[in-house]
Amino acid sequence: MTRSTLDIVLQNNTGSANAYAYVTGLDLNRNNAVFLLQADGVTGYYPSSPSDILQDVGADTAIPLGAPGSTKKLTIPQIAGGRIWFSRDGPLKFFLNPGPAVVEPSATNPADPNYNLNWGFCEFTFNSFQVYVNISYVDFVSIPVSLTLENDAGTVTNVPGFPSNALDTICDKLKAQDAADGAGWSNLVVRTADGSANLRALSPNSGIVMNQNLFNGYYQPYVDAVWDKYRSADLTVNTQAEWGDVKGRVGSDNLLTFGSVGSFAQPAARDIFSCSTGPFGGYPNNQAEMGAIGARFAAAFNRSTLLINDRQPEGESVANYYKDVRTNHYSRICHEVSPDGRGYAFPYDDVSSSNGTDQSGSLFDSNPKLLTVGIGGGNGTTAAAAEAPTKVATKEAVTAPATTSEKQPQKEEAQSQKEL
After folding, report:
1. Does position 382 have pLDDT exceeding 50, yes or no?
2. CA nearest 268: which of 312, 224, 333?
3. Which of 90, 93, 124, 270 keeps 20 to 30 A from 400, CA to CA?
4. Quick one: pLDDT band at residue 419, thresholds 50, 70, 90?
5. Whole-number Å distance between alpha carbons of 340 and 193
6. Given pLDDT bands bounded at 50, 70 and 90, which one contains residue 417?
7. 13 vs 375: CA distance, rounded Å
8. Kindly report the CA angle at 388 between 382 and 390, in degrees rounded to 5?
9. Does any domain span residue 415?
10. Nearest Cα residue to 239 out of 293, 298, 301
11. Parallel, antiparallel, or unpaired: how do β-strands 95-97 and 79-88 relate?
């Protein structure tokens, strides 16, 4: 059992003295009450429900990171759905909706007051069983972040994250890919308001939120080839859970059917990138088992391995990911630029073979002592850091996609908005 609180050290590697951090989540020991950490880094704030949407948070939750190179220590309670947010060259704005519900910054709403700011986040859950933390590129890439976790026995694990120049490298590679195939990858590059620099690189899923026509039809030739292959051969999916291997085949109804468990229609590009719409958008029957199958099916589409491996995800090799001309090139590029190849670049990037290499950039430990978050890059594995353990995607990890950031809506849209 973990202790009741966790110490977190934030390292300001941004080069800016005007950098801030925020911590949000749900307090597990207060009936999942909405939690924000106040500016002192130790005092929790539990807002009451406002009477209207987009109200002020009501407390100072902007934690100053200090001068470049300095550190700031935080202490948090046990939290579910946690995020550590960080911004450079100015604070972020959070709001409250009735509930209460925290309205978070959005990278896909140009009307959001945070849209033109340089910000990002990492995700974590800290409960009585363990701490789990990961670097997320599911929505976008911006400020690099590294993670180092020390446990009570002194064992140190690390995810180095991106180098400080990663954003420019990723944007250049996205533009080069667009020049090669004309699919629209350069539309994922977001520039600063004055056009002088790169601000962020959106994931394809986020890009489609901003432009509904982006990547229309992109995956169709690959999907057709997959369907043709499995009309006459079985696709075997190891659920890595109690259902073991299940076999599917495309029938005369043009559905890929896994016996009596359920079927998948052909996914569109938006379904593949989101892992949560179309045939991956919900299962009326056998929800847990279909979720386990769908997670591995969606991951194989993003990595474009279904034509070369008919047993998913067993038999998968990282060296074979993203080799088809039609693939999730955003994810490919993110993993290429990462020094150790790790980082959540699409919602089911934690899927791997049972003895495979972790791609998700996650750390976890049942006896955590100290989590260090380096903000701004240039904080690779230290001499004391051991190689992070492989994380096999469990049923719990892959029956729902990794979370994406909540959009911060305009006032008239906020009532229907999903929030924390």
Report:
1. no
2. 224
3. 93
4. low
5. 32
6. very low
7. 5
8. 165
9. no
10. 293
11. unpaired
Domain membership of residue 78 (yes or no) is yes
Longest Cα pair distance anywhere in the chain, in angstroms? 65
Report pLDDT for 420: 57
DSSP H/E element including 270: helix 269-274
H and E: helices and strands count for the chain: 7, 24
Burial of 373 (0-12, 13-18, 19+ CB in 10 A): buried
- Within 10 A of 40 (CB to CB), how many other CB atoms are there? 10
pLDDT one-digit tens code per residue, 298-323: 999 999 999 999 999 998 999 999 99
Query: Regarding beta strands 118-126 and 79-88, do their DSSP bridges make them parallel or antiparallel, or are they unpaired?
Result: antiparallel
d(CA 276, CA 297): 12
Give the end of a domain, one of 267, 294, 325: 325
What is each CA distance from 45 to 77, 87, 90, 178, 374, in whole angstroms? 11, 20, 22, 45, 24
Residue 419 falls inside a structural domain: no
Where on the phi/psi map is residue 408: left (φ > 0), alpha (ψ -120 to 50), or beta? beta
In one-letter notation, the amino acid at residue 101 is: A
Query: d(Cα 406, Cα 27) in Å, to the nearest integer?
Result: 19
Contact 341, 160 (CB under 8 A): no
Minimum mean pLDDT range among 10-19, 22-31, 410-419: 410-419
Q: Assign residue 310 the CATH number of its domain.
A: 3.30.920.50
Residue 383 has pLDDT above 60, yes or no: no
| 20-27 and 63-64 strand pairing | antiparallel
In a domain, 420, yes or no: no
Check: CB of residue 292 under 8 Å from CB of residue 321: no
The pLDDT of residue 418 is above 90:
no
Enclosing domain of residue 371:
5-163+339-408
